[in-house]
Each structure stands twice: as structure tokens, then as C-alpha cells.
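The protein record now logged underneath.
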Amino acid sequence: MALTVETGTGSATADSYISEADAITYLDNLAASGSSNVFTAATTAASEIALRNATRTIDSMFALRFKGARLLGTQALQWPRVAVVTNDNYAIDSASVPALIKNATCELALRFIADSSGHDTSRLTPDQDSPGAILSERLKADVVETETQYAGASQQKYFKLVADMLGPLLHPGGKVMLT
């Protein structure tokens, strides 16, 4: 089944933030010289599944943290949104899906494809397991020694690069602002 790409209209049937062709272009432009792009090598069906999963993951992980409000109550995805101003005071066009969202979708789709053979180690920002909340910290002064205990690792995968990419579109500190 072909992707239905959100173009900024608030589609009720959209299932991806970016087309397969645009995702291939983005990922090919970032691929290291001489390296193969596992996304490009995948079948169209596998690439489309990865893009759908990436879109769904972004929406489920960040929906409550995105700035602004969805353009329409009937739209299928979290973007487009109205009243979004980035951390450096640039207004986001409410009739579009920001490049940051599209690029983050590509990065997650690549991870979905690469996951069957291990994580793509060519990326500068690796995925990390969230360590959980800090339970206690101790600093010993006579001999410099630090110790940190965590309350347990999160069972949800933390995609650091994606979270960093989406940072300008999120409320600071993970807080949801209600107005």
C-alpha cells in the first residue's frame, strides 16, 4: 500500500511525514563516501513500512511535548500545527511539515531498517538507553570520587539524534505548556 504523505493540509489519511523518494535523497546525502545506504537497498515495501513506523513513533513519543496545536482536529498526524515558534523565535508555517520533522522521520526509518542487522554506527549521535531517574549522587572530597545510582533503566528506546533534531519544536525541559 502506497504512503499517504502529509503535505501541510491536515490530511485525515496521512501516514507519513515524508515520501520514500525524499527520504532516499536525504539519507543518500548524509551517507559516508563509499558506504551503502541500507534504506536505499531495502525494498519499497520495507522502506514504506519503516517510514510509517518512524512517523508513528515521532507522534507517540513527542505528541505532548510539541509546541502549538494541531491544525485540524480531524488530521491523522501531529503535524501540521499552528502557533509554533522555535526556541530561537522563528514561526513555523502552519500549512507545512517542518524539515526537522521530515529529517527526524528519515533518521528513525533508517534505524528501523538497520535494526535487523544492528544499529547504524556511522551516525555521530548514537542511540542510547535512557538510564532512568537519578536515585542518589555522592561526591567524596578527600579523594575525588563520584558515584551515581539510577532508579532503573527505561524500557523505551531513546533516540538521541531524533530528540536533538526535534528540540526546537518541543517545549523546553519536556514540560507541556497549557494556555
Notes: The first strand starts at residue 69 and ends at 70.
